[in-house]
SMP-30/gluconolactonase/LRE family protein (Streptomyces hokutonensis), 320 residues
Amino acid sequence: MDRPSALLARQYVAIGGVGPEDVVADARGRVLTGVEDGRILRLDGLTDPETVRVETLADTGGRPLGLELLPDNALLVADAERGLLRVDLTDGTVRVLADSVAGEPLRGCSNVVALSDGSAYFTVFSLRYSIDQWIGDIVEHTGTGRLLRLAPGADSPEVLLDGLQFANGLAPSADESFLVVAETGARRLTRYWLTGPKEGRSESFVDDLPGMPDNLWRAGPDGPIWVALAGPRVAPLELLHQASPAVRQAAARVAVRVPFRPTGMIGAMAFDDDGAVVHHLVARGSAYRMATSVCEAAGHLVLGSVRERGIALCEPPAPK
């Protein structure tokens, strides 16, 4: 990896809710996010952070994580408790698109993207741990994450990939020939081919990231793939991952009972479709902890967090 630049915070914006885990920007520079109590919020006026307006658009009745804006004024929501949802942004109506797979309840949905053919691709971070015990999966290293696809008009999704280490963020390539999947528990980005001679196969896209990748975001085909780094590499954790399953399970039982205290290291990286680094930004000793998402909006680099009570507005990187 190249030498990182500083991730410089401009301002913190309280949103009246806890845990804006994913942040996405619309064409008008507004930011949408979901919070712990189930609400979907929209933040307007980010060009003047002192007068930001926070509007509640809907309530999923679960725990919304990854979001994907649709062209018909709707929003796809990966809800960790309720499954894959569609929210009408006009009236706040919430519709369940998928809440089971192969006859089993669909839990742990993490992120979602929609492609031009109407397909929705989404991730499940774990088959064993719920969102409030996510640290257990990171510690146990279960490898039960999944990538799924809901075809247009289908009632049930299909599993495309399993065995992923805490499957998280998703982003398409510019030509939609492949998807990039963040594996938080393995510190890597994985490529899944949608078309071409490697269709249906997966391979490494970027290995050995300097931190744990979370959500991915792409403004459009001309922009890079942004990835939020929620925390640093943890050498003792990686050593534990080499231990026997029984040892990892015992450690996970302890981890879910001990309050998690994130470090002050967060970061954001951007990659092109060849996996080359476009931007690499790091903040050490940050007061804003566990940055789980990043997007560009209203002249800011916007961070979201699964723990904080607001978003962070940061200095955008110089164009490359």
